[in-house]
Amino acid sequence: MISVFDPRQSAHRPLREFHNGGWSDHAEVPSRATTILGAVGDAVPAADHGLDPIHAVHDPGYVTFLRTAHARWAAAGREGDAIGYVWPVVRRRALTLSRIDAELGRYSADAVTPIGAGTWDSAYWAAQTALTALDPLLGGTARTSFALCRPPGHHAGADYLGGYCYLNNAAIAAQAARDQGAGRVAILDLDYHHGNGTQDIFWTRGDVPFVSIHADPAQDFPFFWGHADEAGEDAGAGATRNIVLPHGTDIAGYRPALAQAIAAVRGFAPDLLVLSFGADTFAGDPICHFALETGDYAELGAIVAALGLPTLVVMEGGYAVDALGANVASFLNGF
Ligand code: Q9C
Ligand code: ZN
């Protein structure tokens, strides 16, 4: 299996996050990626595919905001990471406001996704990592590849950041595959959290079906998306599937959900699969509440591989850093 990793992804070092009303150390640390790299062994660096494939998914105003927000924050005399504190509630007027705090509200879904001096560079190279890992699949020289992306992407929408995510790496790769001739590209999301950004991006489209298994959003982040009745609209009606599981789910509870998700993916008859993989379903994850064990990931990998589709595995969450390398290696070896 080809793996892609780019060291520029380590420039993003969020300092802290707002948690239960106070500050705690940020869970999405640079060592996540380096420990996975150590476990998978060889990886090639990302090739620069430029901004076009990013703009094919993300609003140009949002991309400019992301690129410049930290410099503007510093120019406003602020220290540390840029972070919003006021948000436009649904159905407020679409005002064009240039104050950094207003723009942070306009383009953010939450306050756990800070923008530091290195954030744009890392997010950019994470997107390039996904695009680089896609190339051999489109070229027919590989059946499976692994994009070791950091920061993760699946909570980022076309014009918003959130959930530790800035650019939606999986969506950018799926759209790039469509633009280069893949007929239908399915996205299967096995992160512990619902991939709300990916769902939003493809909500009205039938050409990129989205299937996700995640913790019930009535109980967990991102709360406002990912409920079982959300199925897509317009040309995308029926092309979104949300399978929700309770806290405490172990492999015995996960298996039937995965079988259902795999059947849904198969029903869409895709030409290519993008797999948003999070290892935050692990029993020892410090911020999540499922109970998969390291050995279980090999089973999940084998089940996904049995679809027989060209597959791009895109790294999403997973915060038990000490076990993260072993969990990801177990999943990839299952292929
Ligand atoms: N106390 C991914 O796994 N949790 N993102 C906020 C605040 C946010 C996780 C908890 C979790 C986001 C890619
Ligand atoms: Zn997650």
Description:
It is a single chain. The chain has one domain: 3-Layer(aba) Sandwich (Arginase, Chain A). Helix content is 35%, strand content 13%. It has a 7-stranded parallel sheet with strand order 1-4-9-8-5-6-7, sandwiched between helices. Helix 8 packs parallel to helix 9. It binds N-{4-[(3-aminopropyl)amino]butyl}acetamide and zinc ion. Belongs to the histone deacetylase family. Its cofactor is Zn(2+). This is Histone deacetylase domain-containing protein.
**Content of β-strand:** 5-15%
Provide the succession of SSEs.
Answer: EEEHHHHHEHEHEEHEHEH
User: Distance between the terminal alpha carbons, to the nearest Å?
Assistant: 9 Å
Mean pLDDT across the residues is 97
Structural class: alpha/beta
The CATH superfamily title:
Histone deacetylase domain
Q: Give the C-alpha Rg.
A: 18 Å
Instruction: Indicate the CATH topology.
Output: Arginase, Chain A
Bound molecules: N-{4-[(3-aminopropyl)amino]butyl}acetamide, zinc ion
Cofactor: Zn(2+)
Keywords: Hydrolase, Metal-binding, Zinc
Protein name: Histone deacetylase domain-containing protein
Domain Histone deacetylase: 49-333
